[in-house]
Amino acid sequence: MAGRLTSLLGFGRDEPIGPLDYGRRWWMRLIVGLTFVFLYAPIVVLIAYSFNDSRRNIVWVRFTTDWYVKAIHDQSLLVAFGNSLTIAIINTLLSTVLGTLTALLLWRFRFPLRPVYEGAIALPIVIPEICMGVAMMAFFAWIGWPNDLPWPISLSNIVIAHVAFSFPFVAVIIRARLAGFNRELEDAAKDLGATEWRTLLDIIVPYLKPALVAGALISFTLSLDDFVITFFTAGPDTITLPVKIFSMVRFSVTPEVNAASTVLVVITVVTTVLALRLQNAGQKAGSSG
Amino acid sequence: MSDAIISIQGVTKRFGEVTAVERVDLDIRAGEFFALLGPSGCGKTTLLRMLAGFEQPSEGRILIGGQDMTGVQPNHRPVNMVFQSYAVFPHMTVFDNVAYGLKVAHTPRGEIAPRVKEALAMVQLSGYEARKPDQLSGGQRQRVALARALVKRPKVLLLDEPLSALDAKLREAMQIELVRLQQTVGITFVIVTHDQDEALSMADRIAVMESGHVRQVASPQTLYEFPSGRFVADFIGKMNLFEGKVVAREAAGLSVEVEGLGRLELPADERAPAPGRAVGIAVRPEKVELTRSAPPEGSVARRGTVTQVAYYGDVSYVFLDLEDGPALNANVINDERAAEPHFVKGETLWAAWNPRDFLVLGE
Ligand SMILES: Nc1ncnc2c1ncn2[C@@H]1O[C@H](COP(=O)(O)OP(=O)(O)O)[C@@H](O)[C@H]1O
Ligand SMILES: [Mg+2]
User: Fold this and answer.
1) Which of A110, A192, A205, A208 would best serve as a mutation to test chain B binding (most B beta carbons within 10 A)?
2) Which of A178, B102, B255, B354 has CB atoms 3.0–4.6 Å from B248's, for a disulfide?
């Protein structure tokens, strides 16, 4: 039965399956297949219906890009998207710098309680987002953060919250790359006459480049699609794309929401893929020297 | 003292509990090829890093070109280093690697290219300027590291185990090339190595180190033929070592009673321990003569049985058990073409020595 099923699925081959050839066992393939279906089917459906010429996401009518046109002309959606991009870009700059400096500090210097700091750095990564959100809200209320600041200063509390949860990711990525750094490269630069500062700029930063790009892209995507923490920290008048989508969905899931979400998915996927590829490339290039 | 380019004066280096280098006094002369030789962990690298300025002595001081280097940072010292890992900058081309030290020193732009070219020619890497380090072999990367240091025209070039990562053939070629290079540029070379052949064949003088101490500083030949103590005798080359006791120490000669060899009458040696004290008697394998017939009057000879013959092509190592117990290692030079080994396992031979070839080692 099983044999016939596998050949039916086109998996059957003449050579016997080796003990570690899990990839060729039909049940393994089935599990992998099902996982992909459950993970990606909703996203595929979301994207498909953003091109569907019907108000309701039930049956396929015909292909259209009307919903994208409609979304582009929705002023409040555009404002939210603009806010999201602004926050994400500022967050990326700040958390990349802050995360890199943190990683360099932890790598380069010995000081009391260093292991505690190393552990504490990872905390924002593991703390539930909802707790971070509530804590941020309480924090800004406690220090009496004003709500009536002009744009783009009005975004600054969201930026602060985003930096707080995304710079640890950068720090962890940079720290991992630094662990493989050959300290003799640093010594060699100094031996040839370079100061500490030039050694950092000429030798360490180029070595970190793939990790810097990966860290920046990850903090960008983290910020761009963050909902929970933003929802708790945003003032009544500042709305980001995920928050806007959430408020639209509360009335009904329109294809316009699908279109907006698809844009978010595409940006996030592209950046993440770039980040992963750069990190892999860096690992390969970093092994020489 | 006056011609010392490096003067290490009473230098000790501690890392917490560990004393890596202890009370070292050493003068290195201008223009010499100097080797720091010793087993792994004896403090060679630490001493070299103190010369380069990466570590500061816990005690004592280091003078380079007559100037006290205490507190002088690596980027302000007139020395350059070739690192064990070569530490070639992976993101820079060969040209940029070699030019780096000139650029940070604000060398005029017009001067950089010719000097880089000259340095690369010196290490036979002309034409490789545009390559990235990952397109080079290990040996070529090492040449880049050499050129990068030499282009700075340092007073002293420091090399930490420069050949240990190369395979045997390349290592031998590089040994010869390094000596040639040193003679061409006339810069003082200080090389760290744990490989005695490397040190013996390349260096003008060698400092033998053991657990943080310098045991002997001498020319290769002096180290080999007149080691100052047991450690150096044992560490350099192969050695047959016997334990004995001094019977008489007079102007006419030294008389020792050696376990397994009996009474030996040796030339006078005022450095030998006093009568009644324990003494080590050592002899190099190549100083032992093996014969089938009884040796002439006057030589010291003992009978022994061959237990093993190790054939190395140019020489064979013959291992014997002497009649009274001790094992003995002798070298036979295979200086004639022969299809059969000179000596075979199981045969009984005479092992003979010239009494002058015995080394007398204190405790
Ligand atoms: N930075 C350091 N911190 C602590 N101990 C060190 C350090 N560098 C070297 N040591 C110790 O000092 C001793 C000598 O080391 P090293 O100079 O590297 O020896 P070698 O180069 O002769 O093999 C070793 O016991 C080593 O563990
Ligand atoms: Mg070493």
Assistant:
1) A192
2) B255
Residue intervals in chain B for CATH 2.40.50.100: 238-361
Q: How do residues B269-298 score in pLDDT, each as one tens digit?
A: 888 888 989 999 999 999 999 999 888 777
For residue range A28-83, what is the model confidence (pLDDT) as tens digits? 889 989 999 999 998 898 888 889 888 776 788 888 888 899 888 888 889 999 99
Burial of A59 (0-12, 13-18, 19+ CB in 10 A): exposed
Burial class, B184, CB count within 10 angstroms (exposed 0-12 / middle 13-18 / buried 19+): exposed
Q: Which residues of A touch B90 (CB under 8 A)?
A: 185, 207, 285-286, 288-289
Query: Which CATH number among 2.60.40.3080, 2.40.50.100, 2.40.110.10, 3.30.565.10 corresponds to the domain B238-361?
Result: 2.40.50.100
B73 contact residues in A (CB cutoff 8 A): 190
**A187–B54 CB contact, under 8 Å:** yes
How long is chain A?
A: 289
DSSP labels, B40-71: TTSSHHHHHHHHHTSS--SEEEEEETTEE-TT
Find the closest chain B residue to A190 by CA distance.
B75
A254 touches A63 (CB < 8 A): no
Could you please state the CATH topology (level 3) that the domain comprising B4-233 is classified under. Answer: Rossmann fold (3.40.50)
Whether residues A193 and B152 touch (CB distance < 8 A) is answered with: yes
